[in-house]
Amino acid sequence: MSRKNSFIFRVLQVVAWIIFVGLSIEAGGLIVNFIFSIYNPGMVQHLYQKLDLSAMYTQSRWAFFGIYSFILVIAFYKAYMFYIVTVLVSRFDLAKPFSEFVADHIRKISYYTFFIGLISYIARQVAKTLTHHGYNVEDLDQFWADSQAFILMAAVIYIIATIFSKGVELQTENELTV
Q: Nearest Cα to 21, choosing from 11, 29, 9?
């Protein structure tokens, strides 16, 4: 492993941690917004992302809780997926990359990526349905705009996980024959 690749890997570790912290802050901010939008809707305009669904709350509580549940689930799973990424890059051995631990974590990342894409797609379809019933959900597109990209990314990551699993098998066979 060259020094340049080792340096790039260290930078990527830092970037993964920064993204994880950012996504955790976003999930926490959304939870705070959710609580304030129920108990004190007047404060929402001063909170994180100014996500004010108080009009939806007064119009229909089922729609409010449904949409906010989608937002919270997506935010939580994005943060959790990057937690798995940070654990992976923290324990990843560049000298011996093919291990069962790495293959399992890459596979988990693909599952969570697919789940985020699927939930985002369902949430977007529900939001479109709510638009037809007179709800204003235009501000919510930012939470599920990339659903198809997540699904495609999940497929690519799953292929990489399969390659790593095969690499682990080959490495184990080579170690047994030597």
A: 29
Average pLDDT (117-146) is 89
Pair of tokens at residue 1: 């492993």
Task: Indicate the pTM of the whole model.
Answer: 0.86
Whether 105 contacts 84, CB under 8 Å: yes
Q: Hey, which bits of 95-143 come out as E strands?
A: none
- CA angle at 60 for the pair 148 and 30, rounded to the nearest 5°: 50
DSSP state of 43: G
- Stretch 124-131: mean pLDDT: 92
Give the whole-angstrom CA distance, residue 120 versus residue 146. Answer: 8
The length of the chain, given as a count of residues: 178
61: left (phi over 0), alpha (psi -120 to 50) or beta: alpha
SS3 content of the chain, % helix, strand, coil (to 5): 85, 0, 15
Residues 34-69: pLDDT tens digits?
888 888 877 766 777 777 787 888 888 898 889 989
